[in-house]
Amino acid sequence: MVQSLPFLIVIIPFALLFGVVALEAGMDMAQVMGFSVLVLAGASQFTAVQLLSDNAPAFIVILSCLAVNLRMAMYSASLVPWLRGASGLQKAGVAYTLIDQSYALSIQHYERHPRLSLTQRLAYFFGTATALCIPWMVASWAGARLGSAIPDDIALDFAMPITFLAMIAPMLRTPAHLTACFVAILGALLLAGLPSGTGLLIAAPLGMAAGALVEQRTEAQAARRKQESRKQEAGR
């Protein structure tokens, strides 16, 4: 929970901004809190509010939000090796509270401490989730309640890019990580003109594939070097 606290610097303004935007879009308090408590996904919440404001059909809103949150499927897949033995109820709790920040903190902690027990891993994850998700809900309520009092010149929309930069930078430790990052960035820039953010949905798997390819080659080279070293030792 303590390690999660720095993220509140950006989560709270972002949640305040959602409360303000949702209120301006004509939602009442129950609807605002329904989004923040039931959906609990900042980017898709903003997407939904924008589309609803544009009178988009409900199925378009749902599909767009699912597309925006598709990255959670990738997050979930990478958590499977660490949380494989969790019960169904525990997995449901992880799925509900899985956000960018809780994932990033947890996966880094698991990689640094691979000998943690399943109980310790779950405890760490739910510690991050408690410290991050509850303030999101409270700040969303505050934004909707106090939105009209927030000056227009306070740029709350800075929160999202800074949050992602803070999460990604410490994770770029290997050539595979760097390759995945920069291929995804390049793909996102080249495909930025595609509608409804679909360019990001293409760029993300491209980055993952590139990173996996580099990691596979790196591991193969390491295995060859180890095999050659053994041959040399046997020859001596």
UniProtKB/TrEMBL annotation:
Keyword vocabulary terms for this entry: Cell membrane, Membrane, Transmembrane, Transmembrane helix, Transport
Pfam families with a match to the protein in the record: AzlC (PF03591)
Superkingdom classification of source: Bacteria
Membrane-traversing stretches: 6-25, 122-142, 154-172, 179-204
Keyword hit for Iron: no
Membrane topology: Multi-pass membrane protein
Location in the cell: Cell membrane
Family according to the record: Belongs to the AzlC family.
Name this polypeptide is given: Branched-chain amino acid ABC transporter permease
